Amino acid sequence: MADNVKPRVRVPRSAAAGEAFEIKTLISHTMESGARKDGDGNIIPRSIINEFICDFNGENVITAKLEGAISTNPYIQFEASIEESGTFTFTWNDDDGSVYTDSKDIAVG
Amino acid sequence: MRIITLTAAVAASLALFAGASSAQVTDPLVVDGQTIVTSAPAPDFLDIDEVLSGWNFRTAETRALQTDDFENPAMIFVDQALDDWDTAEGTANKACADCHSGPEEFAGLRAELPRWNDDQGALFNMEAYINFCRTERMGADSLKLAKPRMDAMVALLSLQSRGDIINVAIDGPVADIWERGRELYYTRVGQLDMACANCHEDNYGNMIRADHLSQGQINGFPAYRLKNAKLNSTHGRFKGCMNNIRATPFAVGGEEFTALELYVASRGNGLAVEGPSVRN
Known about the structure:
The complex is a heterodimer of chains A (about 110) and B (about 280).
Chain A: E1 6-10, E2 14-15, E3 21-28, E4 49-56, E5 59-65, E6 75-80, E7 86-94, E8 99-108
Parallel strand pairs in A: 2-8
Antiparallel strand pairs in A: 1-3, 3-6, 4-5, 4-7, 7-8
Chain B: E1 3-4, H1 8-18, E2 29-31, E3 34-36, E4 39-41, E5 50-52, H2 60-66, H3 74-85, H4 96-99, E6 115-117, E7 122-124, H5 126-138, H6 148-159, H7 175-186, H8 196-200, E8 207-208, E9 211-212, E10 223-225, E11 230-232, H9 234-244, H10 255-267, E12 277-279
């Protein structure tokens, strides 16, 4: 597992049914691109988060495929709307097999 | 760079700013409801009328990042410093948290630094205080200056004073050092034969290549720079500036830069600490 990986998510505590609101996510990660070389000229192997998934009550909201040109500490912002109270779950899948997760509850009202 | 699904609101605000020049804006910096002073009457010893935070010279997009702690990339490093805060190290096997109730204990400190440390008989900046604690009380190694762990810890402690008005003492025991800093500020050096003042006093607000020159205030340091995607320390920035004018930089943490830090900090008396700021 890469060092210092820490997911952060901002979701409103409540939202009106059917109304779009903003979700912001940020995960600290070095996102080694695989294109850099170390001091001895050897290629540093790629180690990035290759997939981001957001689900709401088990239903997929967004899935993002991340490729080698992605920055460090990727920030992903999107909108969603809900009809019922529930839980957003966020999943980041790392190249090395690590999975980082976070979840946020939200109420309709 | 960041992935953003551009919402209508964001697109609209971009369009709104597209025509505006970014030099010396006057809109206030508000972070989580707290208004932070970004311009003030200049201290008496300066020839300019007003001191302006570097915030005023940056683009709308860069400024927007600093108005929300979630979007401020520097906060990632503040979080890392919080982990460090709880990590026991050294022969005393102590963490910062073993002696200090929390980083909040240092509220207000950043606004007074660098300042004279009577016990040690030396001018202390934040880095000096941190390393003094580490070597004398924790029995641990010094953190390397202008390196990620140190810059993150400085950011964490600076954040506690965010919004506090800078009030650096320039008299008493530090008077000579301050005078030395002032001399450095106005002394031309390097192949380009330039002093700090040539850019940051005579030409702030003007373009230098594709960028606006700021007043070179350090109230926002450590600053997260989009350019290198990390925190940048005051001395690291001084070094960068000296490289730019093709001079041989003084040593980071050395006597010259510490004197210069005192003088430059005092030029910002009246501005507020911006905690870790965001700059380009």
